[in-house]
Amino acid sequence: MIKKISVICILVTFILTILGCGELRFCQLAPKAKNFHPRRIAVFPMEVWNHKEADSRKVVEQIVAGSLVEKKLFDHVTDVENLEKQIKENEELAKVKDEYFSKLKTLAFSDPDLSRKMGELAGIDAFLLLSIDEWKYTEEGDNKTAQVGVTMEMYDVSTGKLMWKANHAITSEYLLIKPELPKVARDVIGKMINYMPH
Is 28 helix (H, G, I), strand (E, B) or coil? Predict the structure, then answer.
């Protein structure tokens, strides 16, 4: 009987998680995300950029920060420019950030002590990591499309835990006038932010 109830609870949680992010390509909430309400968040700069348009990275980072401010989900949003300025001016923050991301990349380990320290030094409760999966125009015969895909990860600085991860993409068809990729990105990001813990 207890085993049956446990299985039902797990299934209900799984179904609610899927339904909660149903309109995105992929969305995963940590079990404790429902009690996670950060007030101050920072957008970290994208480290990997595989696309030809180098300036697009800054455009996407600005769109994310601007959309977060616009939605008013958080009391304070630190954009990439201000975060980089803090890091430049604070040697300890720079060292902790480098050490944290080195472990995250090489060991896939979000060190809770380094995360907590980074949060204290930067004055944040959570941080957002971004990656761009698609950023292109394609043509196949008469079919022309503009494609933008984004992945976001939100970490709780007090525990170092990944609280939310989502991925979404929009493919916009066109005939003569190409839709601007930043405009498509704004639509992708706006939709994703609706599912972000806050």
Answer: strand
H or E segment and range at residue 50: none
* Rounded-to-integer distance, Cα 20 and Cα 14, Å: 10
Other beta carbons less than 10 A from residue 92's beta carbon: 11
- What single-letter DSSP state applies at residue 5? H
The two tokens of residue 4 are 């049956």
50-109 tens-digit pLDDT: 555 656 788 999 999 999 999 999 999 999 999 999 999 999 999 999 999 999 999 999
Which residue stretches of 21-152 are H helix? 55-71, 80-89, 91-107, 112-122
83: left (phi over 0), alpha (psi -120 to 50) or beta: alpha
CA distances from 149 to 16, 24, 52, 84, 152 (A): 24, 11, 15, 25, 10
Pairing mode, strands 26-29 and 126-140: unpaired
pTM (two decimals) = 0.84
Q: How far apart are CA 130 and CA 133, in angstroms?
A: 10
Helix (H, G, I), strand (E, B) or coil at 127: strand
**Sheet order of strands, 40-43 included:** 26-29, 162-174, 143-156, 126-140, 40-43, 76-78
Name the residue among 138, 142, 156, 146 with its Cα closest to residue 38: 156
**Phi and psi at residue 20, to the nearest 5°:** -65, -25
Give CA 176 to chain center in angstroms.
Answer: 32
Phi, psi (5° rounding) for residue 53?
-85, 95
